Amino acid sequence: MRPGRVAGAALLALLALGPFLPMGGMRQYILHVLIQILIWSFIGGAWSVMGRFGLVSLGHGAFLGLGAYTVTLLWNFYSLTPWIGGVAAAALTVVVALVVAYPCSRFQVVGHYFALVTLAVGEVVRLLIIAERNWTGGSLGLSLKPATGDSLLAMQFADKRVFYYASLVLWLAGLWIWYRVDRSMARAAMEAIGEDETAAASVGIHVTRFKMGITMLSAGLTAVGGVAYAQYISYVNPDTLAGIGVSLRIVFAVVLGGMYSLLGPTVGTALTIALGEYLRVVFGLRFIGMAETIYGLLLILFIIFLPSGIYGSLRDVVARFVRPARLASGVR
Amino acid sequence: MLELRRVTAGYGHFTALWDITLRVEAGEAVAVVGPNGSGKTTLMRVISGLVAARTGELVFESDSLAGRRAHEIVSHGIAHVPEGRRIFPLLTVADNLKMGAFQPSARKGFAESLVRVYDLFPVLRERQKQRAGSLSGGEQQMLAIGRALMSRPKLILLDEPSMGLAPVMVLRLFDLIRRVREEGYTILVVEQNVRQVLKLVDRAYLLEVGRIRMEGRAAELSEQDFVRKAYVGL
Known about the structure:
- The structure holds two protein chains of two kinds.
- Chain A is mostly helical.
- Chain A contains 16 helices and two strands.
- Chain A has a domain at 27-243.
- In chain A, strands 1-2 form a two-stranded antiparallel ribbon.
- In chain A, α3 packs antiparallel against α4.
- The longest helix of chain A is centred in the middle third of the chain and has 27 residues, at 207-233.
- Chain A is globular.
- By secondary structure, chain B is of the alpha/beta class.
- Chain B is built from eleven helices and ten strands.
- Chain B has helices at 40-47, 70-76, 93-100, 104-108, 110-120, 122-126, 137-149, 167-182, 194-200, 218-223, 225-232; strands at 2-11, 14-24, 29-33, 55-60, 63-64, 78-81, 155-159, 186-191, 203-208, 211-217.
- A six-stranded mixed β-sheet of chain B has the order 6-7-8-3-9-10, with helices on both faces.
- Chain B is globular and about 45 Å long.
- The model of chain B has no long low-confidence stretch (mean pLDDT 90).
- Chain A binds chain B through residues 185, 188-189, 191-192, 195-196, 198-207, 330, and chain B through 48-50, 69-71, 74-75, 79-82, 86-92, 94-95, 98-100, 102-103, 106, 129, 147-148, 150-151.
């Protein structure tokens, strides 16, 4: 076996055994941080499915919020199980993504303009949630109606370990989808479209279809991430699940880790969440906004000096020293 | 093989092409010449489906092309080499050629097409692992033509192949296009370099301000006083 595979298997075993390792009184806290990392990594991966092809969305909070609120409202008002509600949430989000992305594609709204459109969409969803306060709870947010005890049907569990394993599975599924897209014809087509849409069309690529497909996939997965997050926290809030703030946080984590590599979004998310927790513990309430300031600075430095992110750059360095022959023969 | 009847097209309220009637027979090389802004590129974009015709008929091998989108046109056997080459600069030469065979119908004969393109343009074989953006202008044009050939077309649309190339390179490129033609492809080429292109093709159309002003055999056209003065520079 190659060293990379051994490391991967070891990491996976560690993750699988994680909740049973001795952690003293920190267990609940560490599990909470790990669950957050897994869910947000999944969401970051969902973003990078389209972001890596130049479809930079600054409004994925819209999809996240749609997913989280749809499933929560269906449960609270109609007692519809999140298993079905989650599917409905993803379907609704995919439709919304289509409504936004189709005109963008037809009228060649690309690059910066596309980013601005999505930025607005994220805000629109946040403002809609706040405006419809009679049933969404407005800016105060909304708590998930508690089920009686642990309930698989309601996706509610008292034990964090259940959520830990659920989010581990979700994260692995996200990686698998990312990998499948990476190995598909869609990747070749999307790379060509990202470089030059006219040229892509002239070699026979159905530009609109591929862009729609990848956007819908990304939006749907993001909605699923929103559902998972809502079920875990059992509270939804327009500021944490929609709007500019969360949208940019997703983008930042992915850019930091590297959007062109399988594990980049995960590494970036883990680092940003760890950094956020660290700053929160060190500075407490004294320097509110410190974490954001440091994020902002890092983001600028990364975009300039490490465009393929921490993980992506590390991987390139390792590849250069360990496998010069493979690289020279054009194998990535 | 290709026939346009009274085609009108444009962008928004602006009409770039008026009543274009034009035909290309199988095995022929035909040029559309004319000054900047005469609608040459729009004409190519209409044929390749990037711009929709407003009125008129487009027929390719007895199939109507009206209302077809670009990707469908490619599968009909028309390959467009767009103006300004439009290669994928960050992909390697080999990957650019691979993208040319994106359509399922082209993927089947991929290996054979690749050998054919590399034989026509040996420099592409040498540089297959290089990023396409690092090629010289002439090599990029060869790559653009090679990429079009990868879709196994019957008709090739060449839009301003000599644009931005050094004079020596222009001569070499026209030689190569001549060889492509000898391979049995039908060619419709749009050019500003009227003198060179008229040596290459059988027939030509003169396009001015969106209308066809003149048509005829290439040799006859280049003898016309009007064409000589305005375009050939003799």
